[in-house]
């Protein structure tokens, strides 16, 4: 059995801040698509949940992952980083054998 991805409290807190400022609170979708400089890339955006999505929920906030992306994100940790170079959701993915410098593209 593979481990589902995990979302940190910091990522849920940032999602809550984003949704507080919006009239239409939505889940954060974390997906994997082909492309990028390393073969796969993360697609992180606000989106509505679909019936077959895995839903990770805490404190009224939801992060959703589609079934196709789930094997690529098994055991991954979804976090939020606020650094000098910018603030963004980041993924620590144990399945990635390498990734690009920006952190949005990876290979397996």
From TrEMBL:
Source organism, top-level taxon: Bacteria
InterPro entries, per the entry: ATAP, ATAP_core_dom, FeS_cluster_insertion_CS, HesB-like_dom_sf
Residue ranges the record marks as coiled coil: none
Segments forming domain Core: 7-103
NCBIfam families named in the record: iron-sulfur cluster assembly accessory protein
Protein's UniProt name: Iron-sulfur cluster assembly accessory protein
Organism: Paracoccus albicereus
């Amino acid at each position: 059995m593979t481990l589902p991805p995990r979302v940190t409290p910091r990522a849920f807190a940032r999602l809550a801040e984003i949704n507080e400022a919006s009239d239409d609170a939505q889940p954060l979708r974390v997906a994997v698509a082909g492309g990028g400089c390393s073969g796969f890339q993360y697609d992180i955006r606000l989106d509505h949940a679909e019936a077959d999505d895995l839903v990770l929920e805490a404190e009224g906030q939801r992060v959703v992952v589609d079934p196709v992306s789930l094997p690529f994100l098994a055991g991954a940790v979804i976090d939020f980083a606020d650094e000098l170079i910018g603030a963004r959701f980041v993924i620590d993915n144990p399945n990635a054998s390498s990734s690009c410098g920006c952190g949005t593209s990876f290979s397996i």
